[in-house]
Each structure stands twice: as C-alpha cells, then as structure tokens.
Amino acid sequence: MIPMTRPEMGEPEAAAARRAILSGWVTQGPEVAAFEQEFAQAVQAPHACAVSNCTTALHLALRVAGVLPGHEVVTVSHSFIATANAVRYCGAMPVFVDIDPATFNIDPRRIERAIGPRTRAILCVHQMGMPCELQALVEIARRHGLPLVEDAACAIGSAVLWAGEWQPIGRPHGDVACFSFHPRKVVTTGDGGMLTTRHADWDRQYRLLRQHAMSVPDTVRHASDRVSFEHYDQLGFNYRLTDIQAAVGREQLRRLPGIVARRRAIASRYRQLLAAVPGVRAPAEPAHLRSNWQSYCVRLPADVDQAGVMQHLLDAGIASRRGIMCSHREAACADVPVHHALKHSEAAQDGCILLPLYPSMTQDEQRQVVDALAAACRAAARPKAADAA
Ligand SMILES: *Cc1c(COP(=O)(O)O)cnc(C)c1O
C-alpha cells in the first residue's frame, strides 16, 4: 500500500520524548520554551507561542485580533473545516470568498467586495503549503485597517519572494500566523500548534489565554522562593502543548530543511511524469512563491469520475484524497450565509485529487502512482453523451 503520507520520525524523536518524560516536567515547561525559540528562529519571527493544535491557535489568533460575536471574518470555504470553525468559536461568521483556481488560494480580487461594516479580520489560508499572494493581502488589510491572520497549518518551510529575498512563511507577513503539527502536515508532534506574531502584546495575550488566563504561570511559581497566589482576570482556555510533544518538535525542526528539499524534489518529478498523462494537470508554482508541497493536488480530466479514479487507485494499493473540502457544503456550516459565488472552490473539491507524497517515497513508488493514475483515468472516463444515448 502506498499511503498519503508517512511522518519522518525515528530514534531522535523517541530519545527526545524519553528525555522529556524522565526530566520530571512534562507539560509547557523548558522543552516548550526551547521549541518556541527554535521555531521563531526557523521562520524568522519575533515571537512564537506553542499551543495544543492549529485550531486552538486560530481561535486565539482571531480572539486576540478582536473578533467578537456579531463580527465577520473574510476567509475561504475551500479549507479544512477548522478554518471556519475557529471563526465560529469567536461567535463570529465567516464570509466565504472564492479561490484562484491556479493556486487554490484566496483570490485577492474578490476580498474587497466581501468587506463590510462588521468585518473584523481577514483570514487567509496557505492551502496545501502554497503561500497566498501576501503582498496583495497585506495591502488590502492595511487599506481597510483589518488584521491579517494567516492559516499556515500546512505551510511550515514554504517561502515567498519579498523585497527581493526569499522569506519563510510565518515571519509573519500579516499580523499572526498559525501552524499545525498534526501528522498529516510537514513536521509533527502528534498534535500541536504554534502562533507567530509581530506584536509583543498579542504574544503576551496568547500566553495568558492558553493557560486559563492564569496571572502567574506554574513554571514561575515553581522556580520562586516566595509564596505567591495567581488570579484569573478573564475567561481563559487550556490550550497547552506538552513538553513531550515539544521535545519531539525540536527534533522535527532539525529535519525540516531536508524534508522540504525532498518534498520539492518529489513534486518536481511528479510534474515531469504527469506531463505524459493526458488531461491531468499538475499544480502550478508561481515564480515568486515556494511551496513545501504539503499536499500534491492534481486536476483530473473533465470527463472522468473522481470517485471512480480514487477507487481504481485504491484497488491498485494507492491512497488518494479528494480535492480540499468546501466548508459551506457541510451541515456544520448550514447557518453560514453564502453571499459570493464559490464555483472555483467547488470545482477544486470535485475535480481534483491529492496524490501520495512523503520524503521517503521511492522513484518506483512515484512511477506506480502515475501509471495507476493514467490507467484509472482511462477506466473512469464517463461515457460520452452520444454513447450514453
Ligand atoms: C490541518 C489544518 C488545520 C487544523 O490543524 P490542527 O492542528 O489539526 O488543529 C487548520 N487549517 C488548515 C488549512 C489545515 O490544513
């Protein structure tokens, strides 16, 4: 079986988890602090705050950006449902706009008509690791005085050409970026998340809110020779990352450059191999954007049945997934009004599939995937109207 992904983990991660377990301090302690520092360095961010996952990171990011009940957040439907859910956790409504079919990311030209008097933030998604058009997004956000929140769940190790140099996603270019360490992403801690921001006061609020809004953290009380009592001045959350996870994350960060280089080499070979498969379109990478290829999304020929292609692949021992979901089509979002056409989002969900891609993938496995895809497209071609009649 060729899976969608295989986490790159081994003895260094196991030893790191062991080290944390035997240290006597297993949650949000010294390993988390070190992970935050090393992560900030890796993405060139002034501040990094670790949390339990990217969904909780998005919740804190939006909340601290000032998103409250009655507000609206301009974002995409074409994303994992956590993006829309985080807006709902704040009591706000997502306002969905369509994607640019070339990059699967929010189309900057559609944002301004979705901004209204209740808009409180723009939430862009670097979908599947491909950076958004950040320059345009930052300009729109500035012009309207709105914070720009980046859902960078998939985008660690991706980069944009900015002011003449390649800059990592997460500096951040907007106001705050949120990352995921779920096993389906490029590096993993089992579960985990990180917020990076340019605002020192936002970072302080994330640290407070992730631990019940406790005024004196346990680490501080533990290290103090004076008795002190904490207080709780607002509603907080338990969004802590454990030291066991952070220790693993530090090892994963060391692997990041190698992982991204491998993923890019495999993506580049996919592009070559797919050129020989009629009708299948490989994803594009604009010259000013550099993807980590967290997911490799191909567009199927118009006349094939998506589920049929995926079933053929599965029968051949190859995993695949449909295109990225559209949140507005889910019952969970039934009460979210749709004011703007989402036809490119829907077409991407229905007409694309994601292919396996992981650093340890062999050339032989890649060849098998592409050969099976070619056969699957032939077999799953829908009968032409004339034949069907
Ligand atoms: C995976 C993902 C999330 C959620 O990340 P978790 O760490 O699982 O909470 C959010 N947004 C996008 C775009 C994702 O792909």
Automatic annotation (TrEMBL):
It is an enzyme of class 2 (transferase). The keyword Transferase applies. The active site is at residue 185. Its EC number is 2.6.1.-. The modification N6-(pyridoxal phosphate)lysine is found at residue 185. Keywords: Aminotransferase, Pyridoxal phosphate, Transferase. GO terms for biological process: polysaccharide biosynthetic process. It comes from the Bacteria. One of its GO terms (molecular function) is transaminase activity. Belongs to the DegT/DnrJ/EryC1 family. This is DegT/DnrJ/EryC1/StrS family aminotransferase.
